[in-house]
Amino acid sequence: MTVDEEALDRAFTALGDPVRRALVARLSRGEATVNELAEPFAITKQAVSRHIQVLEQAGLITRSRDGQRRPCHLVPAALEALTGWIDTYRLATERTYRRLDAVLESLEETE
User: Fold this and answer.
1) pTM for this one?
2) CA gap 6, 98 in Å, rounded
3) Residue 90 CB coordination number (10 Å)
4) What is the dihedral of CA 4, 81, 59, 65, to 10 degrees?
5) Rounded CA gap, 95 and 54, in Å?
6) 52 CB neighbour count, 10 Å cutoff
7) What are phi and psi of 86, to 5 degrees?
8) According to DSSP H, which parts of 1-111 are helical?
9) What are the Cα distances from residue 42, in Å, to 9, 21, 27, 82?
10) CB within 8 A of 35, min separation 6: which ones?
11) How far does the chain reach from its first CA to its final CA, in angstroms?
């Protein structure tokens, strides 16, 4: 599996901001416009638009056109790439801990 390091950097950087994480969480429930996304925040719509641009540039969301509406959508493949990268290290660490547990268990049995 080839990992696009630059894409990972952009995605993790984008997710480093709590507002952008909240936007991703909201979009996980379905599409939304900038106005809808801006509602819960005490920041301007322009600020929310800038956060959306960062998420778009990171490849985490896209926008479509529906008449005059421009809803935002999550890109599931981008999130899968992030979780896949994380899982690689999580699974390796879990294997190490399972081996350690087995060694500790065998030591307890010999005592």
Assistant:
1) 0.78
2) 33
3) 11
4) 140
5) 36
6) 21
7) -65, -45
8) 5-14, 18-27, 34-38, 45-57, 76-110
9) 28, 15, 18, 29
10) 45
11) 44
Q: How far, in Å, are 18, 49, 71, 89, 104 from residue 67 at the CA level?
A: 31, 19, 10, 44, 64
**Position 44, amino acid:** T
The pLDDT tens digits of the residues spanning 90-105 come to 877 888 888 887 788 8
Give residue 1's pLDDT: 45
What residues contact 85, with CB distance under 8 A and at least 6 apart?
Answer: 3, 8
**What's the pLDDT band for 2 if we cut at 50, 70, 90?**
low
CA distances 6 to 2, 49, 108, Å, are 12, 23, 47
Q: How far is CA 87 from CA 9, 69, 83, 91, in A?
A: 17, 36, 6, 6
Confidence of residue 38 (pLDDT cuts 50, 70, 90): very high
